[in-house]
Amino acid sequence: MGLSERSKRATLADVAREAGVSIQTASHVLSGTETARVAEATRVRVKEAAAKVRYQPNMVAQAMRYGKTNVVSIWMPLDRPILTYLRYLHMFQELSEQEGYQIMVMGLNTKSALTNEGEIPRMWPVDGIISVDAGKAIGLLREDPQYDSIPAVVLGYESYKNTDSVAWDLLGAAREAVRRMIRAGRKEIAFVAPQRILDDFPNERRRRGYNEAMEEAGLKPRYIGIAQDTSEVAELGVLADFEKNGVPQGVLAFTDAVSIGVARAALHLKRRIPDDCQIWGLGDYPESADFRIPLSTIRPPREKIVNQAWKWLGERMDNIALEPRFVEYEMELIERESTRT
Question: What does pTM read for this prediction?
């Protein structure tokens, strides 16, 4: 198929012609008009014709005519290779298919997602928005009156008009992980995180939990910054720090990917895990459980988070005037060989 052929968009008339029905009948079927009296065999024929001619509805026109697109937009930063984001996308995709919606992914950068200094992404007509690690972007959206009435759910703690918030107690879980290392007799415990987090986000919840546990025990915090939160980059950055400043007795890692890098660095320096260095990660990545020394992790309640967010978004799409709602779920600490004594 040539470029000129690809650029020619199939129309409703093309579908009607292929199915041998009127344009009005094709419109009723493809718009999901349940009140229209169309035989089931005809509906099947129209849908097959639409697939054959590769018909795609005009979202703008559909939104203007019916006030609905059957599209939910997922906002998330895509400049970080985080497995958790893919897991959320997969779960939301499954729910959307069950209820006849399509998912549109809006990729943001970290600045737009996590700070007030970004820009509102280009908007397309959608029925609702779910932000994953991108709450500040919803705040920017709400500053524009024309987008004030789009239903939204934030996976996080940010709260805005016409928006619900579904959070998980990352601060409390991080604090408890550090407390456990302290109770095990560890005095020098480091927090390993991307340098941009250490530089620009002093109130990041993992960091706050770490700081609170260290402060209540009268211990001095030690921060190790890395360029990216991948296992390969983490290993290089942590190894350089360990060679210069010594291997700590315990580590709280920003993610499981980082904890794998920490473990590799410690093992490279002939340290025993957990005898010489205990390690906690976050995210319950399969790789952390399969590591040669299974790594302890903090597991977010993903199923609860996704189901609650989807439920609330549906309710808000039915009634935008609902008061903003908030829920916070506990996280699960999973002890494996890297912290067992």
Answer: 0.80
